[in-house]
Amino acid sequence: MKAAHPFALVAMAVLPEHLHAIWRLPAGDADYSTRWALLKAGFSRRVQAGESISQSRAAKRERGLWQRRYWEHQIRDEDDLARHVDYTHFNPVKHGWVSAAADWPHSTLHAYAARGLVSPDWGVVNNDDAHCYGE
User: Fold this and answer.
1) Distance of alpha carbon 115 from alpha carbon 110, whole angstroms
2) Cβ burial, residue 39 (10 Å; 0-12/13-18/19+)
3) Alpha-carbon distance 90 to 132, whole Å?
């Protein structure tokens, strides 16, 4: 999919029930929907069927792995990008999966820390900053 429809992965966090991804597309290309459709289809083909699905999904031959829609937001500027990257990396803490963002293995936060863009203890919750990461 990425070879036919290139993009750069800016930030991502994959959680058990959802994911967040920030992509940078080539100039003049805003076709997120094709990329998401191909990504979802390719992933779904690789996962054994067996999840429960509604009659509506069964009638449309859909799997129950993905919600039908996704939330798309065009980044406006560098501050907006920083807020969304923080929100993405902090999301596992927000949803209670870990108490420190660095404890979540399925996140690009680790690459940010390795490049020195954030400290290794970024996103540790205490009472003073529990709501400061992108909210």
Assistant:
1) 9
2) middle
3) 10
Phi, psi of 107, rounded to the nearest 5 degrees: -150, 150
What's at 120, amino acid-wise? P
State yes or no: pLDDT of 68 exceeds 80: no
User: Using the 8-state DSSP alphabet, how is residue 44 labeled?
Assistant: H
H-type helices in the chain, by residue range? 32-46, 55-59, 78-94, 109-114
Q: pTM to 2 decimals?
A: 0.80
Q: 32, 21 in Cβ contact below 8 A? A: no
Between 39-43, 44-48, 80-84, 123-127, the lowest mean confidence (pLDDT) is in 123-127
Q: Are 127 and 119 in contact (CB under 8 A)?
A: no
**Which one-letter amino acid corresponds to residue 25?**
L
